[in-house]
Amino acid sequence: QAQIREPATAPFPQDFRWGAATSAYQIEGAVAEDGRGRSIWDTFCDTPGAVLGGDTAAEAVDHYHRYREDVALMAGLGLNAYRFSLSWPRIQPSGTGPADQRGLDFYRRLVDELLEAGIEPWITLYHWDLPQALEDKGGWPERDTALRFAEFAALAHGALGDRVSNWMTINEPWCAAYLGYASGEHAPGRREPAAALEAAHHLLLGHGLAVEAMRGQRSGARIGPAVNLYAVSPAADTPEDLDAARRIDGLQNRFFLDALLLGRYPDDLLEDLAPFGFADCVRDGDMRVVGVRNDLLGINYYTRHTVSGRPGDATQAVSSPFSTVSPWVGSEHVRFVGQGKPVTGMGWEVDPDGLLEVLARLHREYPAVPLYITENGAGYDDVLDADDAVRDDERIAYLDAHLRVCARAIDAGIPLRGYFTWSLMDNFEWAWGYSKRFGLVYVDYATQRRIPKASARWYARTIRRGGLPD
Ligand code: PNW
Fold it and tell me: Where does the chain bind substrate (predicted)?
C-alpha cells in the first residue's frame, strides 16, 4: 500500500521522461496529400453542426509540412520524449491492405528528426482517426475492426520498430467508444448505446490483438494502452450518490482497468449493462487477449467527476454542449455536480489531488506496471498580447500542481516513470474546433506562426532543473 508523504526535494529520477503529446488528426493537416484516405473525423468535420464554428482539421497546424520546425521547438524546450500518433488512413487509406509507403515515409522522417535531436519517440497507434472505409463496414461495434487494427499495428511496428521502442495501442477507449457511438459528440457521431458497448469491447480486443501481433514480430518494444482515468467521488454520503459514484467509476475507470490489467469486466457493471446485451459480444478467449501483459500503462488525467444519483439536484452538468444524449450507458440518470473549485477553459475542475488518488489506487488495486502520465494539461482561450507574448499563468499553476503530485507519487514508491503534457502546441480540439487552446506553444492559425507561451519557458526550466523548486 502506498504511503503518501510530503514531497521530498528531488524525487524525479535521472531517466524520467519529460515529454509533451499531440495526435495526428489534431496537428497534421494535409488530409488529401500523399494518398491519405479519409477518416471518420474528416466526415464528422463535414457534418453541419458537429464541430464548433464549422472548423475542420484539413490544415490543422500544418505539422505535416512543418514537422522539422516543430521538432526544433521540442528541442528548445529540452523535451527528452515526444508522444504523437500515427494516422491510420495515411498508412492504409482504406483501413486494410498493403501500406502506402508515402505515409510511412512521413513518420520515418519525423522519427529520424526526433532521434537526431535526442528526443525519444513515443507512438500512439490509434488516436481516434479510424479509416472511413472501416466505419462504412460498421466501425468499432464490428468485431472485424479489432482484427484490422491489429494488422495495422503490425504494419506500423514492422516499419518503425527498428527505431521506436515505446508504443501505445489505443488512446482513451472510453472517449472513442462512448463519445463516438453513444453521445455522438465525437466521430462517427452515432447515438446507439448498445453499439457503444460493443465498440468499447472491440477497442480493448484490438489492443490485445495488436500487442500479440507486435510481439510476434520482434522483441524489445515496450507496449501498452493509454486510458483516461478520473478520480470519482459521490456528491454526498447518501446511498443514491454512492451508487452513482460506483457506476461512473465503473464505466470510466474499472471497466478498462479490470479488463486490461485483470482480464475481466467488473461483475457489478456486467449486471448494470446486461439490459444492453453487452456480454453477447464477448467471446470465449477474448478476455485472455484483452488482458495480455503490458509493458507500460499510459494515464491521461484531467479532472475529477463528482456525481449525484439524486434526480434534479444538478448544480452543473459537465457533459458536453454538443449532445443531449448521455455517454453514460445504463447510468444516464447520474448528474455531474461541481465542487466549487476553479475550472479551466473547458469547464473542468482543477483537482490535482484526484491524480494522486488515481495513481495510489492503481498501485494498490492492480498488478504492478510502469506508469506514465501520457496526457495532463489545461485548455483556455489564450490570447496573444500586444508584445507578442502569451501569459498563461493559470496553465503554469495547473501543471505545477499536477507535477507536485507526481513528485509525491514517486516519493511514495509508485512506479511513475514519465510525464507528457497535453499539448506541445495549440491544435484542433475535436468538437471544440480551434476555440480551446491546450498548447505550451501558441499557434497563430492565420499564419501558422508558433510562439512559445510563458508555460513553455516554465516547462523548459522545470526540465532543466529535473523537477520543481521547493
Ligand atoms: C483527450 N471528455 O480528449 C484527448 O486524448 C486529446 O486528444 C484531447 O485534445 C485532450 O484530451 C483534451 O480534451 C478528451 O469529454 C476529450 O471527457 C473529451 C473528454 C475527455 C478527454
Answer: 26, 127, 171, 302, 422, 429-430
